[in-house]
Fold:
Amino acid sequence: MRAQGRHGPEFREVLPALTVLVLVLCAGVAGLAAGYRALGVVVPFVFLALLAVVVPLVVRALRPAARRRRGRYTAEEIAALDATGLASAVCRMLRRDGWSVRPPSGERVRPRVRARHPRGHLLEVVFRPVAEPLPDEDPPGAGPPLLLIVHRGTFSARDARWARHRAGTRLMDGALLRRWADGTPLDRLIDLR
Structure:
């Protein structure tokens, strides 16, 4: 798991955060105890009332970030992403669908994402900006047999004909991308064979 980058943090990496958490909790309990001694039962009730108001607000504020980390995006969030952000979103969506993903290297102008599914499917994902013609795009080279070209807009009939004549090339337009971002598994949207 360590070689694949799927291992969790080591104890020495989480020790500082764990120490801070224990100190904050102990200080909170000591503050509640001191408040109880000084003012009586009112302090714990005020604390619980404040907690009942603050916790839902914090959870509501963090919900979109947590949803994105789990690989779910709204159409507006997908539309607002640049090429690098879209590549990161695709990595998260592939992981959500059970793929093992090798994220894009930061050196490329056009990021490429490579992924492997436990059932043996290999996938390379490339991203296409709106104005660029697809048939003139550079070939992917010696890579995985299935090439997925992601585009937030729509493909022309010429692009669809070009992809049909290339074995192992699939197109994902904006409508399919929005459905995938909303939670539909990739294998229901495109043919992986």
Q: What stands out?
A: The two ends are 28 Å apart (CA to CA).
